Amino acid sequence: MRFVLLRLARLATVLLAVTASSFLLLNLIPGDPTVTLLGPAAGDAHAKAELTQQLGLGHSIPVRYVTWLGHAVQGDFGRSYFTQDTVVRSISERLPLTIELMGMAEVIALGVAIPLALIAAARANRWFDKASGAVTLALLGMPPFILGILLIYVFAVHWHLFPSSGQTPWFHIGNGVVATPRSLLLPAITLAGSQLAVFSRVLRADLLQTLRSDFILAARAKGIPTRRIMTHHALRPSLFSVMTLAVLSLGALVGGSVIVENIFALPGMGRLIVTSIFKRDYLIVQASVVLVAVIFVVLTSLLEILYVVVDPRTRRSE
Amino acid sequence: MTTTGTPPRTASAADESIAPIRNVRKYGFGLWLAIAWLILIAFGAILGPMLPLPDPHAQLTGAPFASPSSHHLFGTDLVGHDLFSQVLYGGRVSMIVGATSVVLGLLVGGSLGIIGGYLGGAADAALLWVTDVLLTFPGLVFALALVAFAGPSLGSVLIAIDVLAIPIYARIARATTLTYARQDFVLAAELMGATRTRVMVREIAPNVAVRLLAYAALGASVAILAEGGLAYLGVSVPGSLSWGSMIAQGQSQLQDAPQAAFAPMLAMFLTLLSLTFIGERLGASIDPREANVSG
Question: Residue B294: pLDDT above 70?
């Protein structure tokens, strides 16, 4: 119980730090939304002052931060400077698609990487290991804007198997759209590519480490088949680094989905963030960054609990 | 691909205590290919203007949509840009970004990490907190915001990418410093009355530098990849060619002139692959435990 309370207290301080620093960073970067909003009329000093007043941009950064935070804890993240939609509405329209995309990518990455690493480690330095080593190395050299366009060329332009852009709506969650898995397959593979490579290389290395321990030798001596040793004995204690990477790579996934959603013209969070940055729609960018940070902090806290479940050796007596 | 040139590896997992030394020799061919490619790209970027090539910005240097030929090594795009010349010039931004991120990472990140790791206390706590915050955020979103708000220019691109690169160098330097700070040769220097500055500069820094240099190749690839992403989204150095922006333009011509996207994609792929390959080999040669990571 005390453990949980401590966790919650830490969560709150980290969130405070993250929101404050992102607010500061975004506001220190030069650029004036009123200029973008007014367009040619920005030369009119009176109109500019009025709009600055209206958007609350006249106050100092700390004052704006406290005001923003006060509203944010009540679930009010303000309105877009441009569309007048509430920020919550804009984000909830886009979020389901991005979560679906990231979820599919993570499932593909882990689903391919774990079997790949198991086979490669079981037959270290044989042909399969070398082939998977070469393929994953090549994937590391392929950021989304290379892998994605390659996939579009092969599967959309050449063979017309998958759409090259956009998505097919499947069902709705609130006002957000969830796309059919088929229409998101190419984007998800694109996003999964380098994750998959990193996961399988790290897991292979950890498996080789585990395979040298005494309990594996004991299992071998008992005559347990290699296949069973790999899946039932070696895998679980080797999952540490991959679990950590899977959670910590959330930042990379967000960055990746910004690119992927632009390659495939998907109306998700990534595109919302990019267009909002170009328009200087601070409140949307701010809320998006906070959302990512919250999810990140919550996931890392869950990760620490997950460690204890996977590996009893980490259970400390408190 | 550079990997096809690697000779078959016969060492088994059992004799890997001596593997690192062997690896350097064994993977010599692939390593040389990777280094040769990087030198080629660097020379192309520097010597580009002196070579008898069409101006990369000139249109109709030949028929539009031309396939690769002796006149246009990589062909032309829909307005007749010479793609070979464009790829050569496009490497310049990548080279600058990669090089500056390594230099700043080593100098700034390295010294911050050593100071934090050796002194401990408040300095270390501050370093950990700042790098934690910087590493938590989705880096690309911040780089994008910084470059878009500050106005795209070479300066803002370099600042955005280098600031994001420094925390990783700092964390590696800190971790390495911690492993050396309690070793006998450091204690000996301290007992002989060496000042803290002298210990950090003369005893710890050389050891940390080896580890950081091994990461530098990977760090450069991360920086080049980030610039590529920014350029793909349309916020890199205006008026100058970049592989990322070329790929974005090529994407719209995929049907008629796939070479417009494939030429810069290939150049970027080989560059990232070479850097990753070199980085892994260097990592393996200084740390036997990491020898296993690469297949």
Answer: no
Amino acid type, A34: T
Closest residue to A208, CB basis, from B3, B13, B277: B13
Q: Which of A157-166, A223-232, A248-257, A290-299 shows the highest mean pLDDT?
A: A223-232
Tracing tokens 């957000």 back to the chain, one arrives at A176
Which of A134, A138, A255 is closest, CB to CB, to B138? A255
Please choose, from the candidates B34, B85, B69, the residue with its C-alpha nearest in 3D space to the C-alpha of residue B220.
B34
Substitution target from A13, A29, A119, A285 for chain B, most B beta carbons within 10 A = A29
Which residues in chain A have Cβ-Cβ distances shorter than 8 Å to B258? 153, 157
Single out the residue of A172, A190, A169, A189 nearest to residue A180, CA to CA.
A169
Q: What is the pLDDT of residue B13?
A: 42
**Region B107-119 average pLDDT:** 91
Which of A84-93, B21-30, B88-97, B154-163 has the lowest average pLDDT? B21-30
From B12, B258, B273, residue closest to A137, measured CB to CB: B273
The structure tokens listed for B119 are 């002194």
In chain A, % helix, strand, coil (3-state, to 5) comes to 75, 5, 20
Q: Cα(A40)–Cα(B292) distance, rounded to whole angstroms?
A: 61
* pLDDT above 70 (res B1): no
Across the interface, whether the CB atoms of A125 and B265 are under 8 A apart is answered no
- Minimum distance, in Å, between the CA of residue A244 and any CA atom of chain B: 14
A177-195 residue pLDDT tens:
788 888 899 999 999 998 9
pTM recorded for the entire structure: 0.82
Token pair 């989905």 in the structure block, residue? A257
Q: Tell me the average pLDDT of chain B.
A: 80
Identify the bridge partners of residue A178 per DSSP, sorted by sequence position: A171
Secondary structure of residue B277 in the 3-state scheme: helix
* B137/A293 Cβ within 8 A: yes
Residue among A35, A145, A194 with most chain B CBs within 10 A, to mutate: A145
Place of tokens 């050593």: B114
Q: Do B3 and A134 touch (CB under 8 A)?
A: yes
- Amino acid present at A295: I
